[in-house]
Amino acid sequence: MSVDVLRLLSCYPDGRPYTREPEIEEALKELHTMSLDELMVRCQIDSPKVPGYVPSECIVHFLRQHAKDNRDARYNRFYRLFRRRVVKALPRAERQEGAKLLVDAAISDANDAAHARIDLLVTLDREGGRQLDFYEVHFNQAVALLRLSARRASARNARREVAIEHDPETGELPPLIERAAGSLDELDDNIFFDPIFRPRLLAAIESLQPEQKEVISMLMCHIPAEAKDPAQPSISAILGCDPRTVRNRRDSAVKNIRRHLGIGDVS
């Protein structure tokens, strides 16, 4: 099988087309001769120092190949591997100090923005775009640029650390903290992040009323519903409406998207 199943369409600013590094081309030639089970075992190796490590660019290649093949089961396996490599490339927001888990909220916010952006890129790429071309050529550099962009997006948030006490008996985080962690994302419904729904998600968004569509589109670009800093862009400021109106449109949009996907309203 040729390693050029997916031709890279993007070009550098000087007009040169994206090309994979020679070592990536050689790795792909070898990996394409393996069975799926053999390939998955190799892809589980996380450290580049371990023999048999599969470069992240190759994982992106196979992710996109199976998107084109419409093999959802295989696509989902490589999607999980891809997300794991992204997580590994992003800085950790937590650190342990004795019994306390310190969370750097600025890093956490930037990572959340990066994950939201990567989900959108993957969605658009699977719909026939070329958003992951650069990830297939220079994965680490692409994630670094993504991280920089996300950090800038959340730069106006004051750098802060929150001490979270573990339960001394169970070692678990308080339930209130765990629930709050999930509530930070304006789009916390799984349909926006589950690869199973991704191929139909954009069509569902296109079916929305214009005012709902624009709110969902901006939320997927990690623009907040409201902002305390008037200099920071927010959906309510852009649309000239009350934040409650934004949230009502968001909730209605999510219900309509779920209905379009055939999975009912949010419970």
Parts with pLDDT < 50 across at least 5 consecutive residues: 1-5, 156-166, 168-185
**What distance lies between the first and last C-alpha atoms, to the nearest angstrom?**
46 Å
Shape: globular
Mean pLDDT: 76
Number of domains: 2
Percent of residues in beta strands:
5-15%
Largest sheet: 3 strands, antiparallel
Helix content estimate: 40-55%
**Counting H and I runs of at least 4 residues, what is the number of helices?**
12
Total strands:
3
SSE succession: HHHHEEHHHEHHHHH
Write structural notes for this entry.
With 267 residues, the chain is mostly helical. It folds into two domains: 22-183, no CATH class; 190-260, Arc Repressor Mutant, subunit A, CATH 1.10.10. Helix content is 54%, strand content 5%. It contains twelve helices and three strands, in the order H-H-H-H-E-E-H-H-H-E-H-H-H-H-H. The protein has a three-stranded antiparallel sheet with strand order 1-2-3. Strand 1 and strand 2 (100-104) form a beta hairpin. The model is unreliable at 1-5, 156-166 and 168-185 (pLDDT under 50).
